[in-house]
Amino acid sequence: MLEFLTQSPHFYDYVTLGVLFLGVFNVGEILFLLYNKAKVERSELKRGNLKRLAATALITATDPAELLPPPVAEDEFAAYSEAIASVLDSFEGEVAVKAAKLLTDLGIDGHYRRLARHRTWYKRGNAIDILSSFRLRANREFFLAVFRSEPSTDVKYRILYGLSRLTRDHAEIRELAELLSTLPYLTAKYTEDIFFNIISALKANGREEEFGLFLKEALDDKKVLNLVKRDCLTACHAASCEKGRSVLKKYYEAHEEEPEIQIAAVRALAKMGDFVLIPPALRHADWRVRLTALKYADLCCTDLLPEIRCLLRDNSYHVRLAAAMTMARAGGAARAALTEEAASQDKFAAAAAAYALTQGAA
Amino acid sequence: MKLFLLWMAVHASQYVVFLYFLVVNTTYTLLIFLALRDIVRHAYLTTSRVARRQLASEHYFKPVTVIVPAHNEAAVITQSVQALLNLHYPEYEVIVVNDGSTDGTLARLKEDFKLVSSIKPVRLQVPHEDIQAVYRSADYANLIVIDKLNGGKADAINAGINVSSYPIFCSIDADSLLEPDALLKSSKLFLEDDELIATGGIIRILNGCTVKDGAVTEIGLPRTTLEAMQVLEYTRAFLSGRTGWNALKSLLIISGAFGVFRKDIVVAVNGYRKTVGEDMDLVMRLHRHCRDNKIPYKILFVPDPVCWTQAPYSLGMLLKQRNRWHRGMIDALLVNRSMILNPKYGATSLIGISYFIFVEFLGPLIELFGYVSIPILYYFDMLNTQFLVMLVLLAVFWGISINIGAVFLDIYNFRRYKKTSDILRLCVMSAVEFFGYRQLMLLERLLATLTFRRKDWGTQDRQVFENKPTTP
Asked: Which of B11, B12, B18, B8 lies closest to B388 in space, CA to CA?
C-alpha cells in the first residue's frame, strides 16, 4: 500500500512526529485560548478603570497629567485616547483645552503619529482614525505630510476624512477637493461624509459662508467631478448649509444633463424651505427628478394640483404612486380629486389612488 | 480478469483517498490562516472610532427592506417580527410573506400586529405565486404582511422583493433573530463600496442561549452534544470557511438565514429560483451575471453582524436539514455547470466551484470508498495495518487542529462564549466529531447525492424563543 511512501526508511518516524506535533499544537492552542481569555478580561477591566480615571481627572483636576499614570501598553493608550476623544466631543472651553494638552503631555498624540507610519496598512489606518477623532488643528500639517508619503489608498481615504474635520476656509476646502481628485472615486456616501464634516467644522467656527464660496467656485470648475459636485449638494442637504442656498438653483440650471445633481439641488433647497425648483422639476424628463419633486410638492404649491394629477398617469410606477401619496397628504381638493381618480377608467391611476387613500386611513 | 480489475481499482483508490485527505486538510488549514488575517484586519478597522461614529450617524444609511418568508411559523412568528421591529436602524420596512401556511401563522400576525388590508399596487419584477392579500399594521407603519399561495421559500422572497420599496433587501428566516445592530453593520458596507452587491453575516446557534423580548441576553452552549456539535460546525463553516473564501474572492454562499442584497441586481437575475438550495443558487447566478456582463462587483461575508438561528435539536431533524442542504448544493452546481472549471469566471470557478465539486460533492463518495476499501484490502491481504493506524491518527489530529483553529478564531476575536467550561467543551467537541457524528453526516450526504432530484423541504419543528435555554 502506497509502497513508495512506506518503504522510505524514516516514513513512520516522520508520521509519528507529525501526529505528536499536532497533538502538542492542539494542547498549546487550548492553553493559549484560556490564557488569552484571562488576559483580555484583565485588560478590559484596566481599560474601563483608566477611561473613568482620565475622564474624571480631565473634568476635576487643574493638571490631569499629574494624576494619571503615563500610558505604556497599547491598551492604555487606547483607553486614554477613547476617554479624551469623548471629552473633546462633549466639552468646549477649558476642559477641551486641558484634554488637548493631555494628549501631548502623556505622549498619546506622538504615539499614534508613530503608529501612522507603521508598516502594516490597517494599523496605520487605525492610528489615523484615532488621530482624526482628536480633531487637533495641529495635526493638519502632519496629515498632509503623511498623505504625500502614504502608499495605501485605503489609508489615504482615512487621512482625508481626518483633514475634513479640521477645515477652516474655502482655500482649505479646495485643497482637500484637489487631494480627493487624486484618488479613485470611492463612494457617494464617503464624499458626502467628507463635505458634511467640512460644513460642520466651518459651522463650529462660524464660517459657513466659506462653503458657499467654494460651491460658487466649483460650479464651473471642470476639475471637480460631477459626482463630487452632486455629493457636495447632498452634504448641503444633510448639514442644512443655508449659506449655499443662493448657488443651489444655479447648479440645477447649469446641469440639465445631470439629473442626479438636479435631484440633490431640489432636495437641499426643499429642506431649507425653498420650493422654487419644484414646478420645473415636476415637468422634468427624468422620472427620478419628478419623483423627488413629488416628495415635497404637497408642502408648497396648491396650484400645482393639475400637474400632480397628470402624474397619476405617468409612465413610471414610482411616480404614479408618489403622485397619489402627495395628493393624499395635501388633503382638501387634492384628496377629493384622488377619490375621483380611484374610480377612474385608467387602471394604473385608479390603483395608485385607491392605495394612497387607504394609506391615509391606516 | 474481474478479480484483477477489482484489485487494480482498490489499489488506485488508495492513492485517491490519500490525495483527497491531503488536499482537504491542507485547504481547511489554509482557509484558517486566510481567515485569521482577514478577521484581525476587519476587527482593527471596524472597532476604530470613525467606523463606530459612522455606524451611529443618522445621516449615513440606505433604507432596507427586511423580508421574512414564513411557512407554518405560528410558534415563533410574533417574537421574530417583534425582534425585527426593534432593530436599530433609521429607515426600514419589514415584509412578512405568509407562504400558504396552514397552522394559523397569518391569524397570529393579524391578531398581534393589528393588520389592516392594504391595496398597494405591486410591480411584478420577479416571478412568484399569486398574492392573495397585502396587509399593513395599524400599530407599526413599517410592517407589511403578504398572504400568498404556497410556493416555497424562494417564491416567498420573490413576492417580498416585488412589494418592497427600498433599494436593498435583507432576507431572514422566521426562526432567526437578528442582533439589534446587525442590519446597520451589514448595510453600512453598501455605503462604503458601490461595487458590493451582496453580503451576509455570521449565523450563530440560538439553542442554549437565553432570549428576552426578542433579544439574546445570555450566550451559552446548548446542553446536548448534538446541538453543541452544530455550534462547532457553524463556527468552522462561517469563521474559517466563509471568511477564507472571502479572502480568495470565491464566496459561493450567502446564508439564506441572513443575507443582504442589492435589489436591482437580484431583479436582473430574475430573483430567486425555486429550489431547495436557493441561497447558493442565487449567489452563483449573481457571480455569473456580473462576470457575463462585465459588471464590477463584490460579494462579501462579514463576521461581525450576527443572526441567531434555531438549530435542529433531534437527530432526525438534523439529518433532514443536511440532506436538504446537500441536495441544494448539487442542484445549484448542476444549474450553474457552465461555471465549472471555466477561466472566464476567475477564482470563483477555478477555486470556489472546484472546491465544491471535489470536496463537498465528491468528498462523501471518496470518504465512503476509503471506509469500504479497508475490509476489501484486508480480504486481499493488502492492508498495511501500521499505515492505516498512522493515517487515521494523522487525520483525526489534523481534523482536531482545524476544529480548534476555528474555535480559536471565534474566541480570540469575538469572545461570544465567555465561560471557560463552554470553551473547553467546544474543544472536546472538536475531537468527538470524528467518532460517529462525522460518519452519520457522511451517510446522509450520500443519501442526498442519490436522491438529489427530490425537491421537498420537509418540515422542521419550531420552539418558542422566549426564556430559553432552548433545549427541550
From this structure: B18
Q: Is CATH 1.10.1740 the right assignment for the domain spanning A294-362? A: no
Q: How far is CA A300 from the centre of its chain?
A: 30
Length of chain A equals: 362
d(CA B316, CA B368): 21
Write the DSSP symbol of residue A69.
P
Q: What whole-number distance in Å separates Cα of residue B165 and Cα of residue B64?
A: 8
Do A258 and A230 contact (CB within 8 A), yes or no? Answer: yes
Task: Kindly report the number of other CB atoms within 10 A of residue B346's CB atom.
Answer: 14
Q: Which three cell numbers stand for residue A159?
A: 487621512
From chain A, pick out residues whose CB is under 8 angstroms from the CB of B424. 30
Please report the sign of the dihedral spanned by the C-alpha atoms of residue B401, residue B404, residue B408, residue B414.
Answer: positive
| Nearest alpha-carbon partner for B45 in B411, B302, B236 | B302
In terms of DSSP bridges, do strands B196-205 and B258-262 run parallel, antiparallel, or are they unpaired?
A: antiparallel
Residue A184 and residue A153 in contact, taking contact as beta carbons nearer than 8 Å: yes
**Which 3 state secondary structure label does DSSP give B256?**
coil
Give contacts of A 279-308 with B, CB under 8 A.
Answer: none
Q: What is the pLDDT of residues B116-167, one digit of tens each?
A: 988 878 888 999 999 999 999 989 989 999 999 999 999 999 999 999 999 9
pTM over 0.90: no
| Cα–Cα distance measured from residue B184 to residue B198, given in angstroms and rounded to the nearest whole number | 14
Q: To which residue does cell 448544493 refer?
A: B329
- Collect all residues of chain A within an 8 Å Cβ-Cβ radius of residue B394: 15, 18-19, 22
pLDDT for the residue numbered B57: 52
Element (H, E) at B283: helix B278-292
d(CA A195, CA A218): 13
Q: Across the interface, do A351 and B119 touch by the CB < 8 Å criterion?
A: yes
Task: Quote the CA–CA distance of B313 and B226 in Å, as a whole number.
Answer: 7
Quick check: helix, strand or coil at residue B340? coil
Which of the residues in chain B have pLDDT under 50?
49, 51-52, 55-56, 468-472
ipTM exceeding cut-off 0.90 for this assembly = no
Distance CA A93, CA B406 (A): 50
What is the chain B residue with the closest CA to A11?
Answer: B387
Residues of A in contact with B45 (CB under 8 A): 122, 125-126
CB contact under 8 A, B407 and A82: no
**Cβ separation A358–B191 shorter than 8 A:** no
Task: Check A126 against B44: CB less than 8 A apart.
Answer: yes
Q: Do B400 and A22 touch (CB under 8 A)?
A: yes
Q: Given the DSSP bridges, would you call strands B115-118 and B258-262 parallel, antiparallel or unpaired?
A: unpaired
- Going by DSSP bridges, is the β-strand pair B258-262/B64-70 parallel, antiparallel, or unpaired? unpaired
**What 8-state DSSP symbol labels residue B435?**
I
User: Residue B179, SS3?
Assistant: coil
- Report residue B107: phi and psi, to 5°: -60, -40
DSSP conformation class of A242: G
Interface mutation vs chain A, best among B15, B18, B36, B59, most A CBs within 10 Å: B59
Helix, strand, coil percentages (3-state) for chain B, rounded to 5, are 55, 15, 30
Task: Tell me the nearest-neighbour CA distance from B48 into chain A, angstroms.
Answer: 6
C-alpha–C-alpha distance, residues A30 and A33, integer Å: 5
Q: Which of B13, B38, B49 has the highest number of chain A CBs within 10 A, making it the mutation to test binding with A?
A: B49
Cα separation, B367 vs B32, whole angstroms: 22
- Cβ contact B383:B374 at 8 Å: yes
Answer yes or no: are the C-beta atoms of B241 and B157 closer than 8 Å.
no
User: CB of B277 within 8 A of CB of B328?
Assistant: yes
Question: What are the E-state strand segments in B108-142?
Answer: 115-118, 131-137
| 8 Å CB contact between A64 and A102 | yes
